[in-house]
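Regression report. Comparing outputs from two consecutive submissions.

Submission 1:
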Amino acid sequence: MQMKKRQKSQYLFRNRWIDRQRIVRNMEAFQDLIVIVLCLGLFAYMVMELWQIFSSLMLPLNHQHVTAKILFLLILVELFRLLMVYLQEHSIAVGVAVEVTIVSVLREVVVHGVLEISWVQTASICGLLFILGGLLLVCAKTPHMDMSTNSSYSAFNNSDNEQQENGGKLPHSTQYEEIG
């Protein structure tokens, strides 16, 4: 009886070969589905918040409350953008996450009022904003380290190389062949 040699991407479970790559693809698809559902839910919640902001403008205006609502809506927009970047690149954009955190901290300052916060909290907030600002600068100046392993980036570079080899034309798989 001859035993079939197992590939590195397969392992034996209950006398059946299981392909890890297929499992990973399926799990990534399931993760994408979860992120899409989160995006749709977040979008619906943003529309409801926007409606509340417009309806609160009809009442006597509380500037602090309206500003806090607008900043909260901006946080939701940034979270939506973070989810969209995750869907496209399958990685978290640290710069966008830092931006969300900065806006969230500033929103809390607006909600609670600068004059009502103790000096210790104010110093802590300033330190946090300083660190987050530095991290944002580092993110802006540092090229992405995972670009060489990112398949979409590699495919993009390959298509650019093929275009240069073909004299700027599209690769053969997308060109229409001339007849006759």
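Submission 2:
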Amino acid sequence: MLYHLLYSLHHVNSVFNVFRYITFRTGLALSTSFILCLFFGPAVLRFLRSMQIRQSIREEGPKHHQVKAGTPTMGGLLIMGSCLGSTLMWADLSNLYIWTVLGVTLGFSAIGFADDFIKVRFRRNLGLTTRQKLALQVIVGLAGGWLTRWIAQPAPHAGALALPFFKDLLIPLGIFYLPFVLIVLIGSSNAVNLTDGLDGLAIGTTAVAAATYTLFVYVAGHVKIADYLHIVSVSGAGEVTIFTGALVGAAMGFLWFNCHPAQVFMGDVGSLGLGGALGIVAVVAKQEILLTLVGGVFVMEALSVMIQVGSYKLRGKRVFRMAPIHHHFEFLGWSETQVVVRFWILALVFAMAGLATLKLR
């Protein structure tokens, strides 16, 4: 909204021309969402405490986690609110990709909200059933996949898969495009959800991945740079950097309150929404495959759960002391802060490896 207002004044004074630049508005979006988080954070915490919206702790988890019982949860509302407000302020609202990423993000966040509400309302660890959650995720995912293909038409990349390391190679997926997008969105959303188990772990890792995809989506939307790097050029995708910038700022602002010892937890309303956001941005940028590299920490967490469950069902034995894998390292004697910081380091390494692929074509 502010973008449309301020840029319209460029006829009055040329200084307002600066608002036409995506990079400038991305910086504004990041700063705005960060400030919104810091400003509204204390009020949100007071509200959550007054409504007795508290976290329940798994009894089978590390014993030192029991002190976290009673910590306010559903802090993801602060993340989503800050990101949404900042994006609406600085993005070109005539861009359909902006509405698509916002819609998918808020859709997954709404599923998380329902899950959290049931947990808080009935004071239990389980909210929506697996089937209910999956059904809702499929609906949101199908809508997101259809929109991204519809907006891109008639471009060659609409409904196609671009592979890293192969320049100018597009694989038309046809009827398999929507199922592919579903896998990306649901996998990303649930992987971030599984990562959310230690103070600052999920939000810090998300900030790194979102910052990386800020560059990916900007490059995809810039015809000359995309052509130079031999990656798919997606008309209009550059505007999504406003959203990813706002996401980074909101993540940094929430980390202010979520760092150890956490004053608030994001809840599923935050983790499912953040995972959905990363997934849909990867789809828009045509960098879906690279999400498994850039989001390597999320992949580790999800795989550890799959391996643990599979091994226990097939052999009756556990591979890890506890899954997701961050708890395994806690049982090995790592402190919570050591696990979080070391996983952040891994996230940065994965992100740099993902960025390096831009020249490996």
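Expected: both submissions complete independently.
Actual: both completed, but the second showed a warning that disappeared on reload.
Relevant detail on submission 2: Residues 2-162+169-356 form one domain.
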